[in-house]
Every structure is written in structure tokens, then in C-alpha cells.
Write a structure and sequence with these properties.
Number of helices: 10
Structural class: mainly alpha
Order of helices and strands: HHHHHHHHHH
Distance between the termini: 58 Å
Largest sheet: none
Number of strands: 0
Length: about 270
């Protein structure tokens, strides 16, 4: 049996213990806990992926496990204390385990990532992005708008501008790191991947400020931000020939139209 199997299991047990206990915290301590949990996941993933050759570990390979763990800390805040925590923690275990398995699979290969690997990375990135966007909004006071609270276009945001800026910066940082990991599977150079990450961060930051200004209720704003991440990945990640493919263009148009329709539908709800 591969000794890294036992190491992965022990790492997941440690991380999910921290994630579960974090549900008892609130306020600024949650930011610190999420950061420390992410750092522990990064260190554990680096050790796991670097065994037996630490120098062979790719630095970007620790991003998905670290962000999945940190995002789980924040997202767990929307789950009330009780039996619902059990499936929520099980889902967190599944996500962390999946990204660790994915990175282990990539680390054992000598060739470049396949299209299937890129699809798997994007799927994991979307799940992590959604959880991270939910978690950031849940930790900030007033970050999640409750349905029927009376906020709408033209009215002040329910959180101060400083906190709105923090929310946009956190969302942008998450999008940038996830975008960098996804881009490293397709770009030929570190500089190109870094530029791609900056574009992911910029687009999501603008979208985060926009959707928060119109006060979309509860989890709809994080879902819309995840949709923005997905659409931008399609726009930025496709090769030039594919971007001119009518089928690809129509798929992108449909996704954008869906996002607009979701926003319009929520604006029509009684406030």
C-alpha cells in the first residue's frame, strides 16, 4: 500500500477537526482560523506531495487543498449548529480529499496535464470558489443579505464601504489564486499564468462589488460570482481558434444571459 494513503487520511482528519471546531467561533477569530487552517493544509499538502522527493513538488499544487480547507471554515458558518453539521463536514472531507487525490495523481506523472485534468481542476476550483465566496460573506457582518430585508438598487449597501472593500478583496484573492492554479495547467509560462490570475481577480472583484451593491439575497451572490469565474475561464482559457467557434460563442452567451436572468429575477422579488 502506498504510504501516502495513510498520510493523506491523517492530514484530512486533522484538517476537518479544525474546520469542525471553527464553527464554535465568530468574529475576527474566524479570519485567523481560516488562514491558519489553510496554511496547515498547504504545509501538509506540500509534505504529502513531496514524499519521497520534496524538490519535485510544484508550488501551485498546494493551492487547491489550502483554499478548500480555508473556504470550508467560512462556509460552515451558514450551517446552524445541529445535525446538519454532519453532512456539511462530510462534504468538506470529500472536497479536500478530492483535491488531494487530484494533486497526487498529477505529481506522479511525467507528462503535461490532459484535458480531463483541466476539467477536474476547473470543477474543483468552482466548488472552492463558491464556498469561499459564501464564507467571506458569512464572516463579515452583514455580508449575506437576508431575503425581505428591504435592500434594493439605489439604497445604501447594508455594510460599510470599508467592509465592502474587504469582501471584494477577499473574493478577488480567492479568484486569483484559483485562476492561477487552473491557468498553470494550460499556460506554457509562469508569467502567462500570473497574468491570467490577475484577470480572474480583477473580473471577480468588479463583479463582487456589483452584486453586493444590488443586495442579492443569501447565497445567490456567491453563486453568481462562481458563474462569473466559470465564464471568464471559458473566455480567457480557450485558445484563439476555439474562441471563434460559433458553438463556443453561443455557450458563453447562454451562460451570460442566465446570469442576467437570475439577477433580474431576484430584483423582481418583493423587498
Amino acid at each position: 500500500m502506498d504510504p501516502r494513503h495513510a498520510q493523506r487520511r491523517e492530514l484530512i482528519i486533522l484538517l476537518i477537526s479544525v474546520v469542525g471546531l471553527s464553527r464554535l467561533l465568530d468574529g475576527p477569530l474566524l479570519w485567523l482560523t481560516a488562514a491558519l487552517a489553510g496554511a496547515a493544509a498547504a504545509a501538509g499538502a506540500a509534505r504529502l506531495l513531496g514524499d519521497p522527493n520534496p524538490r519535485a513538488t510544484r508550488p501551485e499544487a498546494i493551492l487547491l487543498p489550502a483554499l478548500a480547507t480555508a473556504a470550508s471554515v467560512g462556509a460552515l458558518q451558514v450551517i446552524p449548529l445541529g445535525v446538519l453539521l454532519v453532512p456539511a463536514l462530510a462534504a468538506a472531507v470529500g472536497l479536500i480529499d478530492r483535491v488531494l487525490r487530484f494533486e497526487l495523481r498529477l505529481s506522479s506523472r511525467d507528462h503535461e496535464a490532459t484535458p480531463e485534468d483541466r476539467v477536474s481542476a476547473l470543477a474543483a476550483a468552482l466548488a472552492i470558489a463558491f464556498l469561499a465566496f459564501v464564507g467571506a460573506a458569512a464572516i463579515l457582518p452583514g455580508g449575506l443579505v437576508e431575503p425581505g430585508s428591504g435592500f434594493s438598487i439605489g439604497r445604501p449597501a447594508p455594510i460599510p464601504e470599508a467592509l465592502l472593500l474587504v469582501l471584494a478583496l477577499v473574493d478577488a484573492t480567492v479568484a486569483g489564486l484559483l485562476g492561477f492554479r487552473v491557468a498553470m495547467l494550460r499556460e506554457r509560462s509562469f508569467r502567462a499564468a500570473l497574468f491570467a490570475a490577475a484577470t480572474y481577480a480583477s473580473v471577480v472583484a468588479i463583479a463582487a462589488a456589483g452584486v453586493r451593491a444590488i443586495a442579492l439575497p443569501r447565497l445567490l451572490a456567491p453563486a453568481l460570482l462562481a458563474l462569473v469565474f466559470f465564464v471568464w475561464d471559458g473566455v480567457h482559457g480557450a485558445p484563439p481558434a476555439q474562441r471563434r467557434d460559433p458553438r463556443w460563442i453561443w455557450q458563453t452567451v447562454v451562460l451570460i444571459a442566465l446570469g442576467i436572468a437570475v439577477v433580474a429575477w431576484n430584483l423582481a422579488l418583493p423587498r
